[in-house]
Each structure stands twice: as C-alpha cells, then as structure tokens.
Amino acid sequence: MKQRLAKLGVAAAIAMTMLSGTAGYAAAQGVDIYVGPGHHGPQVQFGNPPPDYRRPPPGYYDRPRGCDPRDAMDAARDYGLRRPRVVDVTPRRVIVDGFGRRGPDTLVFANVRGCPLLGR
Question: N or C end of the chain, less CB within 10 A?
Fold first, then answer.
C-alpha cells in the first residue's frame, strides 16, 4: 500500500512539473485557455468605431497659434521668476512681470509657438 501511494505521489509530481512547463510556453505565445462556465468567446464591441488617428481631433486647429499667456507664465517660472503675471500681450510679444533674485523683474517672450525668450 505504501509503495502504491509513493508511486502515485511521484506520478502526480511529474504531472504537475509537466503542466507547469507547458503553461509557461502557452502564456508566452499568447494562448488563453478558459475552463468552466462564464466565458463566451471573444468579446465584440458595438457602438462607436475606433478613432481615426490619421486626422487631428475636432477643435485641434482652433487653438491659438501663438504663445499662450499660461505657457508664458510657466516659462517665466522655469527661468526663476516668482509670482509671474502677464502684463501685456501684443501680436509680437508677451510681457511677464514677477520677482527674481534681486527684486522685480520683467521677461519678454515672442508671441509664437513655444514662447522663446526675447529679453529680460
């Protein structure tokens, strides 16, 4: 009886080892095996089609082409200006006032995309 249980245990160990080896290969190949109730095949989505990534989203071209005042304030913070505020916006430049290391300071950005710094 003991020999029979021992052989059965060894056979079960070998079977578990084989199953774990094949499960790794199946997972590597992207194979999903479902056993039991609850799985009804691949899920099909109905409704809106997937977005067309070749076209820009609606409203993409409605954005301002120049330097947005919020972008200018963020750039001024990056240059070390504390409490920046936009003072003036013209077609060519955006002027931002704030406080630098030595007191009040002014930065002038070009009114183009990316807000490049023109001067202090």
Answer: N
